Amino acid sequence: MEKVLELYKEEGETPLETIERFKKENPVYKDEKMTYAGRLDPMAQGVLLVLVGEECKNKDKYLGLGKEYEFEILWGFKTDTYDILGIPKFHSNSVTVDSTVTGLLEDLVGKFNQKYPPYSSMTVEGKQLFQWAREGRLDEIKIPEREVEVYDIEFLGQREVNGKDLLNNIKERISKVKGDFRQNQILEEWEKILSKNREVHFPILKVKIKCSSGTYVRGIANELGEKIGVSSLAFSIKRTGILSFY
């Protein structure tokens, strides 16, 4: 029996749902204690590091491992979660992916302080940030930040999607998410925006990144837009690997 597993978390699943699915498919593990080292958001997919049995006691050793991701940035929209599973606002799709944008990617390499996204599990004054956000009380606290490091970042390409196809894509993907993530409200707002922009084409940038543990890729997608004055969010996120060391 393996003590360290690299499971594939599907989009829409929580890490616990991934573990439950694995146990059903592999009954030999059904009574084993299992925990994950490094969570993935509901809309993210990819490699989930899972510890089994006695190895769960060594979780701290694995939490610090770096990660590798491929992710897409959708321009023209902003949400309160920095990905598609948030309340959207449409600002502008007028961005050209040129040397300015790709140069900003290169500027990210190195260490810097990153604020935790408002919708995250970081605890502040005894309450997780997403709870403060849902209650509309973020202005009562200071959102913490932590030092992260980008080891390498690479521009992989770009594409465009029209509003009609974008809405269908978002509906299909959000429908995979179980639990209360405000799905109905979120889909209602996406519908309002994109039904008026069905034939508009929106640019999507694809990026590959190697970064330290604790780096929020959806935060990077949001920050890149802020740097050039155009709204942006993480359209898709796939964790492609765990870095044993860097």
Summary of the model, kept short:
The protein has two domains: 4-63; 66-243, 2-Layer Sandwich (Pseudouridine synthase).
> What is the number of beta strands?
12
According to CATH, the fold-level topology of the largest domain is Pseudouridine synthase
* Series of secondary-structure elements, N-terminal to C-terminal: EHEEHEEEHEEEHEHHEHE
Specify the helix fraction band.
Answer: 25-40%
Write the layout of secondary structure elements.
Elements (H helix, E strand, L loop, with lengths): L3 E6 L5 H11 L8 E3 L7 E9 L6 H5 L2 E10 L1 E3 L8 E3 L8 H9 L2 E6 L7 E2 L2 E2 H6 L10 E18 H12 L8 H12 L6 E11 L5 H12 L3 E12 L3
Parallel strand pairs: 3-12
Antiparallel strand pairs: 1-3, 2-3, 4-11, 4-12, 5-6, 7-10, 8-9, 10-11
Describe the model:
The protein is an alpha+beta fold and 246 residues long. The chain folds into 2 domains: 4-63; 66-243, Pseudouridine synthase, CATH 3.30.2350. The protein contains 7 helices and 12 strands. It is globular, with a radius of gyration of 18 Å.
Relevant terms:
single chain, 246 residues, alpha+beta, Pseudouridine synthase, 2 domains, eight-stranded mixed sheet
